[in-house]
């Protein structure tokens, strides 16, 4: 039986995490980047995210099978209670429930931090991604039509939104991820691991 672990990413994971990400740059429109990213640059990206938000990795028998994280949605201070979510899987580990397990833990964690709204930006058509987000309560906000050019075509970008809290009154400051209770996090990891199947379906 495979040994499955979910935990917060570490900066030492950057090289292996990037190996999961790079095929999406070169072969897909899931990310709109064109070129390979130097590992040291990718590590710095991770650090900037991890200073405030969760970045989860799923390991199967010691190999990073996938990861998910939240990052700032827009830069201005008034958007400080929003975030964007992303999930990427090693192509060997599709159809095992890893993406859904990571997302569920991720959303619980940012809710605990005090985030109000989560956004996802999806290059469409992408029926499985849209369905996954709808499963977790995301709704379609709008579409940027022909907003990006990649792999020989103009691409549309769908914006989806998940509201975690009612937007009433002045919000409390968002709690940085390193101040979230460790027992709460460990419990979320354990619950998520139980949702992952050990073999491809």
TrEMBL record:
SUPFAM superfamilies in the record: Acyl-CoA N-acyltransferases (Nat)
CDD domains with a match to the protein in the record: NAT_SF (cd04301)
Keyword field: Transferase
Segments forming domain N-acetyltransferase: 4-165
Keyword tRNA-binding included in the entry's annotation: no
InterPro entries: Acyl_CoA_acyltransferase, GNAT_dom
MF terms (GO), sorted A to Z: acyltransferase activity, transferring groups other than amino-acyl groups
Superkingdom of source: Bacteria
Identification of the protein by name: GNAT family N-acetyltransferase
Species annotation: Anaerocolumna sedimenticola
């Amino acid at each position: 039986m495979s040994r499955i672990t979910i935990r917060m990413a570490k900066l030492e994971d950057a090289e292996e995490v990037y190996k999961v990400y790079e095929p999406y740059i070169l072969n897909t429109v899931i990310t709109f980047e064109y070129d390979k990213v130097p590992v040291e640059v990718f590590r710095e990206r991770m650090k900037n995210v991890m200073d405030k938000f969760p970045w989860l990795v799923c390991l199967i028998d010691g190999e990073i099978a996938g990861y998910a994280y939240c990052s700032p949605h827009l830069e201005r201070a008034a958007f400080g209670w929003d975030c964007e979510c992303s999930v990427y899987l090693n192509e060997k580990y599709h159809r095992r429930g890893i993406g859904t397990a990571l997302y569920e833990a991720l959303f619980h964690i940012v809710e605990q931090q005090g985030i109000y709204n989560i956004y996802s930006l999806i290059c469409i058509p992408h029926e499985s991604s849209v369905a996954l987000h709808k499963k977790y309560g995301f709704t379609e906000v709008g579409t940027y039509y022909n907003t990006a050019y990649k792999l020989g075509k103009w691409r549309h970008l769908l914006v989806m939104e998940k509201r975690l809290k009612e937007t009433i009154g002045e919000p409390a400051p968002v709690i940085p991820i390193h101040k979230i209770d460790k027992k709460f996090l460990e419990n979320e990891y354990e619950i998520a691991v139980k949702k992952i199947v050990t073999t491809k379906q």
